[in-house]
């Protein structure tokens, strides 16, 4: 008996295999082992400052998904240098916390992150990167985010 | 004066309407003839093209595809399954009732997951298909009934701010001296009646606090009565 969250994740997984999103690669083998933990590779879009780079995203889902947002962080050595991405991999993106809705999906989040990367014009860390990375919790969902920049 | 003018209008009206109707009739006749001629010339060729270009197998595939597309149109936006106990929001987005109800209960303000329009429990329409075995409102089953509204009376004795401290226990105490001894009576009876009609918030009839209040208010009523009698007799 699979839980509703696993059922929905399986559907999303099958859909992404059937209709892959350009620039987004999912690690199928790992997902088969544990449906609640996804590793997704994002390829920097052509013509942007991240062209040719690859980044790794980690999605962690709890049993309240899709009513509760997944925890999404960049992992690995290459964490994109972006004004909304902290050096520990945490992402300041409204749809990952207060603006999350169950109609969103892994694919939609990947697309949002990819477009957020694509619209950046220069590589820089957020101004409060040092303070935040020292004081924050390991789980980005525990951070109280303030969203101020609607452009990027 | 007025009657004559009315008559004249009545006389002129039928003529004008008749003429308009005639015009309509003539134009529609033209339309009909035009249409019939075009239908006659077009329909056979359309049928021919259908039967000649598409073999039966291809036709079947098309139908299957169409079926799939139709099915995917009725997928719940939350669980990604075909919507069961389906409801539709005013903004036109389809959900299973259990799914959307769960979302409505988890987050405030209540927004449509797809378009973020404001929605609520009463702003969704249940959908009944031809073969749905029950015409029961999906909102009425499976989901625990919503809690009953809790209503608290507003404080309406704003004119007596000074007695608020005494009024908490459900009774009022006032001192009438000199020309206003009746104040006792009025306030005591007021509190007595109030307690009978509508118990204050948190005091259900039967609870120890309620009984205590009842007892206290009766005691004070008697004290007031005795004091009043003493005033008259003295």
Overview of the molecule:
Chain A is of the alpha+beta class and 152 residues long. Chain A has a single domain, classed as Ubiquitin Conjugating Enzyme (Roll), CATH 3.10.110. Chain A has four helices and four strands, in the order αβαβββαα. Chain A has a four-stranded antiparallel β-sheet with strand order 1-2-3-4. The longest helix of chain A is centred in the first third of the chain and has 15 residues, at 4-18. Chain A is globular and about 45 Å long. Chain B is mostly helical and 234 residues long. Among the domains of chain B are: 68-140, Herpes Virus-1 (2-Layer Sandwich), CATH 3.30.40.10; 167-233. Chain B contains six helices and three strands, in the order ααββαβααα. A three-stranded antiparallel β-sheet of chain B has the order 2-1-3. Chain B is rod-shaped. Classes of the chains: A alpha+beta (152), B mainly alpha (234). The A-B interface holds A 4, 7-8, 11-12, 15, 64, 66-68, 101-104 and B 77-81, 93, 99, 102-103, 106-107, 111, 113-114, 116.
Question: Main attributes?
Answer:
heterodimer; A: 152 residues; alpha+beta; Ubiquitin Conjugating Enzyme; 4 helices; 27% helix; globular; B: 234 residues; mainly alpha; Herpes Virus-1; 3-stranded antiparallel sheet; 6 helices; 3 strands; 54% helix; rod-shaped; disordered N terminus
């Amino acid at each position: 008996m699979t839980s509703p969250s696993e059922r929905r994740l399986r559907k999303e997984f099958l859909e992404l295999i059937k209709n892959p999103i350009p620039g987004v690669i999912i690690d199928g083998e790992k997902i088969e082992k544990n449906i609640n933990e996804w590793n997704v590779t994002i390829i920097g879009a052509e013509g942007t400052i991240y062209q040719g780079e690859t980044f790794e995203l980690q999605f962690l889902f709890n049993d309240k998904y899709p009513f509760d947002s997944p925890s999404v962080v960049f992992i690995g050595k290459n964490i994109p240098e972006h004004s909304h991405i902290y050096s520990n991999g945490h992402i300041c993106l409204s749809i990952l916390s207060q603006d999350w809705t169950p109609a969103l999906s892994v694919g939609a989040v990947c697309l949002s992150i990819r477009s957020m990367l694509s619209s950046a014009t220069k590589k820089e860390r957020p101004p409060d990167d040092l303070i935040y990375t020292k004081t924050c919790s390991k789980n980005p969902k525990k951070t109280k985010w303030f969203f101020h920049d609607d452009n990027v | 004066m007025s009657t004559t003018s009315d008559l004249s209008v009545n006389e002129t009206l039928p003529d004008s309407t008749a003429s308009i109707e005639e015009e309509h009739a003539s134009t529609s006749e033209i339309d009909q003839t035009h249409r019939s001629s075009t239908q006659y010339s077009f329909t056979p060729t359309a049928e021919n093209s259908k039967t000649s270009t598409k073999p039966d197998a291809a036709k079947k595939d098309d139908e299957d595809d169409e079926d799939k597309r139709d099915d995917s149109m009725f997928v719940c936006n939350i669980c990604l399954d075909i919507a069961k106990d389906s409801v539709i929001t005013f903004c036109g987005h389809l959900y299973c009732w259990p799914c959307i109800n769960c979302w409505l209960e988890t987050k405030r303000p209540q927004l449509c997951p797809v378009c973020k329009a404001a929605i609520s429990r009463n702003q969704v329409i249940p959908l009944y298909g031809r073969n749905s075995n029950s015409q029961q409102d999906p909102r009425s089953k499976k989901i625990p009934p919503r809690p009953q509204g809790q209503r608290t009376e507003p404080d309406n004795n704003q004119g007596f701010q000074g007695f608020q401290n005494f009024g908490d226990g459900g009774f009022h105490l006032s001192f009438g001296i000199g020309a206003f001894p009746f104040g006792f009576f009025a306030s005591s009876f007021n509190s007595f009646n109030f307690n009978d009609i509508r118990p204050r918030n948190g005091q259900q009839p039967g609870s120890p606090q309620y009984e205590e209040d009842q007892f206290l208010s009766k005691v004070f009523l008697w004290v007031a009565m005795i004091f009043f009698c003493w005033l008259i007799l003295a």
